[in-house]
Amino acid sequence: MARTVKRAFKYRFYPTPEQAAELARTFGCVRLVYNMALQARSEAWTLRRERVSYNATSALLTGWKKTQELAFLNDVSCVPLQQALRHLQVAFTNFWAKRAGYPSFKSRKRSRRSAEYTTSAFRFRDGKLTLAKMSAPLDVVWSRPLPPGASPSTVTVSQDAAGRWFVSLLCDDVIEQVPAPGMGSVGIDAGLDSLLTLSNGEKIVNPRHERADRQRLAKAQRNLARKEKGSANRAKARLMVARIHARIGDRRRDHLHKLTTRLVRENQTLVIEDLTVRNMLGNRSLARAISDAGWRQFRTMLEYKADWHGRNLVTVDRWFPSSKLCSTCGALADRMPLNVRSWTCRCGTVHDRDVNAARNLLAAGLAVTACGDGVRPQQETSRTGRSSAKQENPRATKGIPVL
Ligand SMILES: [Zn+2]
């Protein structure tokens, strides 16, 4: 069976100085329009209890462009500005559905610099990509092929904190759905010592370079802290920090992509735990380990890849003591401090703490699937149907043993 999915293909590109200036202007206008529309919507709600629709913000934008102070909004392509209003609409929809917090203002320094172009605002022909308001195509490094005959529906241009430029093309791609060998299933536990522990006993560790990079990052951050505010040296030090961050992020993403692809290929049912529960337990070192491991990123990748390949992904709440529960006989151990890495049950089974937890997770997940309640509602997203990291799903809980 084959399935057509929307898939983003991301590449680096090198803009000319004119293109870089045009894009920087566009990013600025996108941020401004988003913030002004958010301000208008917030005021309407707090002062008059009115909900402002996307169409109403669109009309506001038309008005702003006619004023003298905001006439510069006419200098950039109007499409990314409209898209910013759509993104705001999605943010509000997610807020009303209680999937996300109240939308926040975009900051000049901290927010992602990006602009989204739809088909009317770019041309993709003979392998060349040209954006609105530009005469020459972008100098894109086509590091991997697009699907044959691809025709992008959306193009997103962005620049990261390290100054690198990226373009992401959203295309239709055909995925061959092949059932997993043996229709196997796996429980995946976010461990302490290792990045992940699987119910089959396999432990997956963090990328080898992570520790060295982290030390380099700490050094660069100390260096930055010593530099005088507003100085050229401080700007240089900040760029160095951003570059190390970018490298850590790249390597982790690469590692997680390989990992999630393998897990989805090998298994028909994948069971993961909901870590928001664990974070609420307030163990700081654990929370840190989880964020280091990029659990959210892992989960997002696993979600869309499971969907692409026709796999069942089950998320379970962990309100039951999976570490203390023997996966062999079901007996409950008395205490299980975090420093206990292995233990022996009364039935005689010797357990590795994390493997035992992953096994219990798998059993709980399969119980959920058996009850036919493993399906979660789709989230509202701007275009890809993918979940973004900010949103949380309502979780399937039915059928999990409550102890
Ligand atoms: Zn036992």
Automatic annotation (TrEMBL):
Coiled-coil ranges per UniProt: none
Record-annotated Probable transposase IS891/IS1136/IS1341 domain positions: 179-283
Keyword DNA-binding in record: yes
Domain of life (superkingdom): Bacteria
Polar residues composition-biased segments: 378-391
Xref: Pfam families: Cas12f1-like_TNB, HTH_OrfB_IS605, OrfB_IS605
Listed InterPro entries: Cas12f1-like_TNB, RNA-guided_DNA_endo/Transpos, Transposase, Transposase_put_HTH
Record region (Disordered): 374-403
GO biological-process terms attached to the record: DNA recombination; transposition
Cas12f1-like TNB domain segment(s): 295-361
UniProt keyword list: DNA recombination, DNA-binding, Metal-binding, Transposition, Zinc
A single MF term (Gene Ontology): DNA binding
Transposase putative helix-turn-helix domain residues: 1-48
Stated family: In the C-terminal section; belongs to the transposase 35 family.
Protein name per Swiss-Prot or TrEMBL: Transposase
